[in-house]
Specification:
This protein has about 250 residues and is α/β, with parallel strands linked by helices. The protein is about 35% helix and about 25% strand. It has a domain of about 100 residues: 3-Layer(aba) Sandwich (Rossmann fold), CATH 3.40.50.300. It binds adenosine-5'-triphosphate. It is found in: Cell membrane.
Amino acid sequence: MMSLLQLSNVAVAERLGPISATVQPGELVHLVGPNGAGKSTLLTRAAGLSAGAGQIIFEGRDLSDWQPTQLAHNRAYLSQQQMPPFSMPVWHYLQLHQPVSHTDSVMLKLVDDLGLADKLSRGVNQLSGGEWQRVRLAAVVLQIHPELNPHGRLLLLDEPMNSLDVAQQTALDRILVALCEAGIAVVMSSHDLNHSLRHAHTVWLLRAGKMIAQGSRDEVLSPQHLATAYNMHFRRLQIEGHSMLIAPL
Ligand SMILES: Nc1ncnc2c1ncn2[C@@H]1O[C@H](COP(=O)(O)OP(=O)(O)OP(=O)(O)O)[C@@H](O)[C@H]1O
Protein backbone atom coordinates (compact mmCIF):
# COMPACT_ATOMS: atom_id res chain seq x y z
CA MET A 1 0.00 0.00 0.00
CA MET A 2 1.28 3.48 -0.85
CA SER A 3 1.83 5.64 2.24
CA LEU A 4 -0.18 8.83 2.53
CA LEU A 5 2.92 10.72 3.60
CA GLN A 6 6.50 9.58 3.19
CA LEU A 7 9.40 11.48 4.72
CA SER A 8 12.87 10.51 3.41
CA ASN A 9 15.94 12.02 5.05
CA VAL A 10 14.07 15.21 5.85
CA ALA A 11 16.31 17.83 7.43
CA VAL A 12 16.19 21.54 8.31
CA ALA A 13 19.60 23.20 8.73
CA GLU A 14 21.25 21.84 11.88
CA ARG A 15 17.95 21.89 13.76
CA LEU A 16 16.35 18.71 12.42
CA GLY A 17 17.11 15.42 10.79
CA PRO A 18 17.70 13.39 8.85
CA ILE A 19 14.23 11.99 9.57
CA SER A 20 12.60 9.15 7.65
CA ALA A 21 9.07 7.98 8.47
CA THR A 22 5.72 7.19 6.86
CA VAL A 23 2.10 7.95 7.73
CA GLN A 24 -0.81 5.75 6.59
CA PRO A 25 -4.44 6.83 6.04
CA GLY A 26 -6.34 6.80 9.33
CA GLU A 27 -3.16 6.69 11.45
CA LEU A 28 -2.87 8.78 14.62
CA VAL A 29 0.79 9.71 15.15
CA HIS A 30 1.96 11.46 18.31
CA LEU A 31 5.18 13.42 18.02
CA VAL A 32 6.88 13.65 21.41
CA GLY A 33 10.20 14.78 22.83
CA PRO A 34 11.75 17.50 24.98
CA ASN A 35 11.49 21.24 24.33
CA GLY A 36 13.52 22.17 21.30
CA ALA A 37 13.62 18.57 19.99
CA GLY A 38 12.33 19.66 16.58
CA LYS A 39 8.62 18.75 16.72
CA SER A 40 7.34 22.11 15.39
CA THR A 41 10.12 22.21 12.79
CA LEU A 42 9.11 18.77 11.51
CA LEU A 43 5.39 19.66 11.44
CA THR A 44 5.91 22.88 9.46
CA ARG A 45 8.16 21.02 7.01
CA ALA A 46 5.57 18.21 6.63
CA ALA A 47 2.90 20.87 6.09
CA GLY A 48 4.92 22.24 3.16
CA LEU A 49 5.38 25.56 4.93
CA SER A 50 9.17 25.54 5.22
CA ALA A 51 12.09 24.43 3.10
CA GLY A 52 14.91 22.02 3.79
CA ALA A 53 16.74 18.91 2.62
CA GLY A 54 15.33 15.46 1.89
CA GLN A 55 12.12 14.46 0.18
CA ILE A 56 8.46 14.47 1.25
CA ILE A 57 5.94 12.54 -0.84
CA PHE A 58 2.29 13.35 -0.10
CA GLU A 59 -0.37 11.30 -1.89
CA GLY A 60 2.23 10.04 -4.37
CA ARG A 61 3.53 13.51 -5.35
CA ASP A 62 6.55 15.45 -4.20
CA LEU A 63 5.32 18.04 -1.71
CA SER A 64 7.27 20.78 -3.52
CA ASP A 65 5.12 20.13 -6.64
CA TRP A 66 1.87 21.00 -4.82
CA GLN A 67 0.34 24.46 -5.27
CA PRO A 68 -0.48 26.08 -1.89
CA THR A 69 -4.21 26.29 -2.73
CA GLN A 70 -4.32 22.60 -3.72
CA LEU A 71 -2.46 21.63 -0.58
CA ALA A 72 -5.01 23.52 1.52
CA HIS A 73 -7.73 21.20 0.20
CA ASN A 74 -5.87 18.05 1.22
CA ARG A 75 -4.14 18.89 4.47
CA ALA A 76 -4.75 21.27 7.34
CA TYR A 77 -2.15 22.54 9.79
CA LEU A 78 -2.56 24.05 13.26
CA SER A 79 0.40 26.09 14.48
CA GLN A 80 1.23 26.56 18.14
CA GLN A 81 -1.22 28.87 19.80
CA GLN A 82 -1.02 32.65 19.45
CA MET A 83 -3.82 35.02 20.35
CA PRO A 84 -5.39 36.58 17.23
CA PRO A 85 -4.08 40.02 16.19
CA PHE A 86 -7.41 40.79 14.47
CA SER A 87 -11.10 40.97 15.28
CA MET A 88 -13.96 39.09 13.61
CA PRO A 89 -16.89 37.07 14.90
CA VAL A 90 -16.21 33.39 15.57
CA TRP A 91 -18.84 32.26 13.01
CA HIS A 92 -17.15 34.34 10.30
CA TYR A 93 -13.71 32.96 11.14
CA LEU A 94 -15.10 29.41 10.89
CA GLN A 95 -16.92 30.10 7.63
CA LEU A 96 -13.68 31.35 6.10
CA HIS A 97 -12.10 27.97 6.85
CA GLN A 98 -14.82 25.59 5.77
CA PRO A 99 -14.91 24.27 2.20
CA VAL A 100 -18.62 25.14 1.75
CA SER A 101 -19.92 28.71 1.95
CA HIS A 102 -23.12 28.19 3.95
CA THR A 103 -23.33 27.44 7.68
CA ASP A 104 -23.32 23.69 7.48
CA SER A 105 -24.71 21.13 9.92
CA VAL A 106 -21.18 19.66 10.22
CA MET A 107 -19.95 23.04 11.44
CA LEU A 108 -22.80 23.36 13.92
CA LYS A 109 -22.16 19.86 15.32
CA LEU A 110 -18.43 20.53 15.62
CA VAL A 111 -19.11 23.85 17.34
CA ASP A 112 -21.43 22.05 19.74
CA ASP A 113 -18.95 19.20 20.40
CA LEU A 114 -16.27 21.79 21.21
CA GLY A 115 -18.57 23.77 23.51
CA LEU A 116 -18.53 26.87 21.29
CA ALA A 117 -22.24 27.19 20.48
CA ASP A 118 -22.70 30.26 22.69
CA LYS A 119 -19.53 31.94 21.38
CA LEU A 120 -20.37 32.18 17.67
CA SER A 121 -21.09 35.92 17.65
CA ARG A 122 -18.20 36.82 19.98
CA GLY A 123 -15.09 38.46 18.50
CA VAL A 124 -12.15 36.04 18.21
CA ASN A 125 -10.00 38.50 20.20
CA GLN A 126 -12.54 38.43 23.04
CA LEU A 127 -12.15 34.76 23.91
CA SER A 128 -10.22 32.97 26.64
CA GLY A 129 -7.05 31.12 25.59
CA GLY A 130 -8.83 27.75 25.65
CA GLU A 131 -11.84 29.09 23.73
CA TRP A 132 -9.62 30.55 21.01
CA GLN A 133 -7.72 27.25 20.80
CA ARG A 134 -11.04 25.39 20.28
CA VAL A 135 -12.07 27.86 17.54
CA ARG A 136 -8.72 27.30 15.78
CA LEU A 137 -9.19 23.53 16.13
CA ALA A 138 -12.73 23.70 14.71
CA ALA A 139 -11.37 25.68 11.74
CA VAL A 140 -8.69 23.14 10.78
CA VAL A 141 -11.05 20.19 11.29
CA LEU A 142 -13.63 21.88 9.01
CA GLN A 143 -10.94 22.47 6.39
CA ILE A 144 -10.40 18.72 5.80
CA HIS A 145 -13.67 17.30 7.17
CA PRO A 146 -14.61 14.20 5.13
CA GLU A 147 -18.29 15.21 4.98
CA LEU A 148 -17.44 18.62 3.52
CA ASN A 149 -14.29 17.98 1.52
CA PRO A 150 -13.62 14.81 -0.53
CA HIS A 151 -9.92 15.76 -0.81
CA GLY A 152 -9.18 15.98 2.96
CA ARG A 153 -6.47 13.49 3.96
CA LEU A 154 -4.14 14.84 6.64
CA LEU A 155 -4.32 16.94 9.80
CA LEU A 156 -1.08 18.27 11.30
CA LEU A 157 -1.51 19.69 14.81
CA ASP A 158 1.15 21.44 16.89
CA GLU A 159 0.29 20.89 20.57
CA PRO A 160 -3.49 20.91 19.98
CA MET A 161 -4.27 20.13 23.63
CA ASN A 162 -2.60 23.38 24.83
CA SER A 163 -4.95 25.48 26.99
CA LEU A 164 -7.76 22.88 26.91
CA ASP A 165 -9.30 21.68 30.17
CA VAL A 166 -9.68 17.94 30.68
CA ALA A 167 -13.28 17.83 29.39
CA GLN A 168 -12.29 19.72 26.23
CA GLN A 169 -9.28 17.43 25.74
CA THR A 170 -11.65 14.45 25.83
CA ALA A 171 -13.99 16.15 23.34
CA LEU A 172 -11.04 16.71 21.00
CA ASP A 173 -9.91 13.09 21.44
CA ARG A 174 -13.34 11.92 20.29
CA ILE A 175 -13.24 14.19 17.24
CA LEU A 176 -9.75 12.94 16.30
CA VAL A 177 -10.79 9.29 16.71
CA ALA A 178 -13.80 9.86 14.42
CA LEU A 179 -11.59 11.56 11.80
CA CYS A 180 -9.11 8.66 11.89
CA GLU A 181 -11.97 6.17 11.54
CA ALA A 182 -13.05 8.11 8.44
CA GLY A 183 -9.52 7.65 7.01
CA ILE A 184 -7.95 11.03 7.86
CA ALA A 185 -4.40 10.74 9.20
CA VAL A 186 -3.48 12.91 12.19
CA VAL A 187 0.07 13.85 13.20
CA MET A 188 0.16 15.86 16.44
CA SER A 189 2.83 16.99 18.85
CA SER A 190 2.27 16.60 22.57
CA HIS A 191 4.01 16.87 25.91
CA ASP A 192 1.55 14.58 27.71
CA LEU A 193 3.26 11.18 27.58
CA ASN A 194 0.43 9.41 29.40
CA HIS A 195 -2.05 10.77 26.90
CA SER A 196 0.14 9.47 24.05
CA LEU A 197 0.52 6.11 25.79
CA ARG A 198 -3.25 5.78 25.85
CA HIS A 199 -4.33 7.24 22.49
CA ALA A 200 -1.57 7.22 19.86
CA HIS A 201 -1.43 4.49 17.22
CA THR A 202 2.18 5.37 16.54
CA VAL A 203 4.70 7.50 18.43
CA TRP A 204 7.69 9.35 16.99
CA LEU A 205 10.17 10.27 19.74
CA LEU A 206 12.53 13.12 18.88
CA ARG A 207 15.54 14.42 20.73
CA ALA A 208 17.93 17.13 19.51
CA GLY A 209 16.50 16.96 15.99
CA LYS A 210 16.87 13.18 15.65
CA MET A 211 14.24 10.44 15.67
CA ILE A 212 15.41 8.23 18.51
CA ALA A 213 12.49 5.78 18.31
CA GLN A 214 9.38 5.29 16.19
CA GLY A 215 6.73 2.58 16.33
CA SER A 216 3.87 1.49 18.55
CA ARG A 217 3.15 3.52 21.70
CA ASP A 218 4.10 0.54 23.89
CA GLU A 219 7.50 0.10 22.24
CA VAL A 220 8.44 3.77 21.96
CA LEU A 221 7.23 5.01 25.34
CA SER A 222 9.42 2.55 27.24
CA PRO A 223 11.46 3.69 30.26
CA GLN A 224 14.62 2.97 28.22
CA HIS A 225 13.74 5.23 25.27
CA LEU A 226 12.37 7.93 27.58
CA ALA A 227 15.61 7.89 29.60
CA THR A 228 17.51 8.58 26.36
CA ALA A 229 15.12 11.38 25.41
CA TYR A 230 14.64 13.13 28.74
CA ASN A 231 17.48 11.81 30.91
CA MET A 232 14.81 10.83 33.46
CA HIS A 233 13.99 7.39 34.80
CA PHE A 234 10.25 6.81 34.39
CA ARG A 235 8.42 3.83 35.84
CA ARG A 236 5.62 2.18 33.89
CA LEU A 237 2.73 0.78 35.90
CA GLN A 238 -0.48 -0.99 35.00
CA ILE A 239 -3.51 0.68 36.58
CA GLU A 240 -6.98 -0.71 35.86
CA GLY A 241 -5.77 -2.19 32.59
CA HIS A 242 -4.00 1.00 31.43
CA SER A 243 -0.25 1.55 31.21
CA MET A 244 0.89 4.69 33.02
CA LEU A 245 4.21 6.48 33.18
CA ILE A 246 5.29 7.85 36.53
CA ALA A 247 7.99 10.51 36.48
CA PRO A 248 10.63 10.47 39.23
CA LEU A 249 10.48 13.33 41.72
N1 LIG B 1 13.22 30.31 13.39
C1 LIG B 1 14.21 29.59 13.94
N2 LIG B 1 15.50 29.82 13.58
C2 LIG B 1 16.52 29.09 14.09
N3 LIG B 1 16.35 28.12 14.99
C3 LIG B 1 15.10 27.86 15.39
C4 LIG B 1 13.96 28.58 14.89
N4 LIG B 1 12.85 28.08 15.46
C5 LIG B 1 13.25 27.11 16.28
N5 LIG B 1 14.61 26.97 16.25
C6 LIG B 1 15.43 25.99 16.97
O1 LIG B 1 15.18 24.71 16.38
C7 LIG B 1 15.15 23.72 17.36
C8 LIG B 1 13.83 22.97 17.29
O2 LIG B 1 12.78 23.84 17.66
P1 LIG B 1 11.25 23.38 17.59
O3 LIG B 1 10.42 24.59 17.83
O4 LIG B 1 11.04 22.61 16.35
O5 LIG B 1 11.19 22.38 18.84
P2 LIG B 1 9.93 21.70 19.56
O6 LIG B 1 10.27 20.25 19.72
O7 LIG B 1 8.68 22.01 18.81
O8 LIG B 1 9.96 22.42 20.97
P3 LIG B 1 8.81 22.78 22.06
O9 LIG B 1 8.46 21.50 22.73
O10 LIG B 1 9.56 23.72 22.96
O11 LIG B 1 7.66 23.44 21.34
C9 LIG B 1 15.38 24.41 18.71
O12 LIG B 1 16.75 24.26 19.03
C10 LIG B 1 15.04 25.86 18.42
O13 LIG B 1 15.79 26.71 19.24
